[in-house]
Design goal:
This protein is mainly α. The protein has 22 helices and 12 strands. Helix content is 61%, strand content 7%. It is found in: Cell membrane.
């Protein structure tokens, strides 16, 4: 063993160090409070400790009618003054009415004043000037906090939309308006609030049933393990039962088509052709034609003949595939620790995702507050230009664009760092993809090394190393980090291109240029196929790296040509393995899901008293089913890697050895018997 792809290893280490430096820089400049806390029109956080807004955790909008939708509100792009308040309004009131009665109803003024700009306490100022300078809102309406923002407190009464049981309100500008005018400004809030109520019930269900969910997942783990162990005895039986079942079903289909064809004989109109009746939206019309059933019968006969011929000519290769599946089950039985390695891969990927997400948030929240002119008039030439809130009222903008406001827009800056934040985000995404692919590659190479040590052991299990999994992991890290990083780099580049293409497709979705959309669609399809091909090549290259310790390019080339020399065996083994593992996943998820259904619906008399009372029984049920499928997928991914490794070792064994005393085979006795004497001569398989 020697170190491979050293240059790529050095680059990989430098990139990781640079990624750490990028994270540190982002953490220095970023401030996640900008995501957690709402920000008022002055760029100050609502609810931030040790500030004037410490007890003001909710954002209030002076005139919510100016906001088009909740999306605009959440993005802080609503052209109205936004203020931090301690609580939302609980009543209808207008500034005109409150100002007119402040002398003899000071309580109303004191209540209304908390929704005015801080420090404003001049009820003698004219209404026109107050509304022009937006010192106070023209009206307040009963609201409730949602997403730490005040939204109208909608409700329905006898099918009519109301706010505080009222259908109309005064807007503070001399007009009486219907509460339906608020609907556009707070579109969809009721649905979201209902979803929040459902979310609370789901959370309660999880809090009650989490213990039983874990028991269900533990049962799924035991069933998955038993399925893998029993495959050495049942792989052939399951496969042949499925094959003969398919042949029988197709045979029945042929008979049924012939029966329908013969039954329609002599019926008027049944001898017409499909061409005669043309295209019909009711497809049942075609079932009244003899020609339709004749075509079905011919197609099914062709499929039946193809399957039978494939079984005749590929019977030996199918037997080899089944023998390799049984051998894989036997190998896992000797190296049980491999079944739990996916936990390591999961933890590495979880660390990568967490680091990427945190860095992305800090990058997105880097910079100082940027203020822009928000104008009601669409023709205002100052709209969306940057401004200074301290000097804004002394400029001509308010005169040329009445009602314009200098409000907080986003966080940014003009420094070198802020100008290249988008590039840093791309780099963050690229290195994230590289690290995730490296974690997957490390897992594949580690498992391949462990299972290869099983295959090439002369006496099984006596010659298997003491700790094959840990030894393989150490070899992969010590000698082949560069090769694994090289393969992961190629895949990360293709995946980043796919992400960019998806972004462009999303941006150009509304365009009318058909050629551009067609070109993007073709590129997306091509890069999807390229990614699938590279994953297949990388997987087998890592196996060759684990076996021989060569660099990535050499291993990929040798793996590719070895597979091409055994392309039929590859296809047969791949399909047989996919079928059995898919059957296993359905068996585990379905079996545990049925058991969970009967338990959570209290249909098992023995456990009826133990079953928790739930709002939605489907919440833990779906969790158990999906979790069981993922658990089975984790176990079976190890098994699939085992079978792929044993297959490449088997092909290498056939090419390098001839079964003689000088060059004995390392394959098991069952594979020996399947090959027979004819294939014990040195030749390519």
């Amino acid at each position: 063993r020697h170190c491979t792809d050293i240059i790529c290893c050095v680059i990989f280490i430098v990139v990781i160090l640079g990624y750490i430096a990028l994270g540190i820089v982002a953490w220095v400049h970023g401030d996640p409070r900008k995501v957690i806390y709402p920000t008022d029109s002055y760029g100050q956080f609502c609810g931030q400790k040790d500030t004037l807004n410490e007890n003001k955790t909710i954002l209030f909008y002076f005139n919510i009618l100016k906001c088009a939708s909740p999306v605009v509100l959440i993005n802080l792009q609503c052209p109205t003054t936004q203020l931090c308040v301690s609580k939302c309004p609980d009543r209808f009131a207008t500034y005109i009415d409150v100002q007119a009665s402040y002398r003899y109803k000071p309580d109303q003024w004191n209540y209304f004043r908390q929704f005015c700009k801080p420090g404003f306490n001049n009820p003698r100022k004219s209404v026109a000037q107050v509304l022009r300078d937006e010192d106070c809102p023209s009206m307040i309406i009963p609201s409730r906090p949602f997403l730490k923002r005040c939204f109208p407190d909608f409700s329905t009464k006898n099918g009519v939309l109301t706010v505080a049981n009222q259908t109309t309100f005064k807007d503070g500008r001399g007009k009486t308006r219907n509460v339906t005018d608020l609907r556009e400004a707070a579109n969809g809030i009721n649905n979201v609030l209902d979803a929040r109520s459902v979310g609370m019930k789901i959370f309660e269900d999880y809090a009650i049933s989490w213990y039983w969910i874990l028991i269900g997942l533990f049962i799924a783990m035991i069933v998955s393990l038993l399925f893998l162990v029993l495959l050495r005895f049942t792989a052939g039986v399951l496969f042949w039962i499925f094959i003969f079942g398919v042949i029988g079903i197709i045979g029945y289909g042929i008979w049924h088509c012939y029966w329908e064809y013969d039954h329609l004989k002599g019926i008027p109109g049944s001898d017409l052709t499909v061409y005669d009746i043309g295209f019909q939206t009711d497809f049942r019309v075609y079932l009244q034609l003899r020609q339709t059933w004749l075509a079905f019968m011919i197609i099914l006969c062709v499929v039946e003949v193809i399957i039978i011929l494939m079984l005749i000519f590929l019977r030996n290769r199918i037997r080899i595939a089944i023998a390799l599946l049984k051998e894989g089950s036997r190998a896992i039985g000797y190296i049980m620790s491999t079944l739990f390695y996916p936990i390591v891969t999961f933890m590495l990927i979880a660390i990568c995702i967490s680091y990427w997400a945190v860095t992305a948030v800090f990058l997105a929240t880097s910079g100082e507050p940027v203020y822009k002119v928000m104008a009601n008039q669409t023709l205002c030439k100052y709209a969306n230009l940057t401004c200074d809130p301290e000097t804004f009222n002394t400029t001509n903008v308010t005169k040329l664009c009445p009602g314009a406001q200098c409000t907080f827009a986003f966080y940014g800056g003009e420094s070198l760092y802020h100008r290249y934040i988008f590039i840093f985000q791309l780099a963050n995404a690229f290195v994230f993809l590289w690290l995730v692919n490296f974690a997957i590659a490390l897992g594949q190479c580690t498992l391949a090394g462990a299972f290869a040590s099983y295959y090439w052991a002369s006496r099984k299990p006596a010659d298997i190393p003491l700790w094959p999994l840990f030894s393989s992991f150490g070899r992969a890290i010590r000698y082949h980090t560069g090769s694994l990083a090289f393969g992961a780099l190629i895949l990360a580049i293709v995946q980043l291109i796919r992400v960019i293409l998806e972004y462009l497709d999303h941006k150009l979705k509304g365009t009318q240029n058909s050629f551009t959309r067609f070109l993007l669609c073709c590129l997306k399809c091509c890069f999807w196929c390229l990614e699938k091909f590279l994953k297949f090549i990388n997987r087998n290259a890592y196996i060759m790296i684990a076996i021989y310790g060569k660099n990535f390019c050499t291993s990929a080339k040798e793996a590719f040509f070895l597979l091409m020399r055994n392309v039929v065996r590859v296809a047969v083994l791949d399909k047989v393995t996919d079928f059995l593992l898919f059957l296993g996943k359905i068996l585990v998820a379905g079996g545990v899901g049925v058991l969970a259904f009967f338990f959570f619906t209290q249909r098992i008399p023995v456990f009826a008293q133990e079953a928790p009372t739930l709002n939605y029984y489907w919440v833990p049920l779906l969790t158990v089913i999906i979790g069981s499928y993922l658990v089975a997928h984790g176990f079976f991914s190890v098994y699939a890697m085992c079978v792929d490794t044993l297959f490449l070792c088997f092909c290498e064994d056939l090419e390098r050895n001839d079964g003689s005393t000088a060059k004995p085979y390392f394959m098991s006795a069952s594979l020996h018997r399947i090959l027979g004497k004819k294939e014990l001569s040195p030749k390519k398989a």
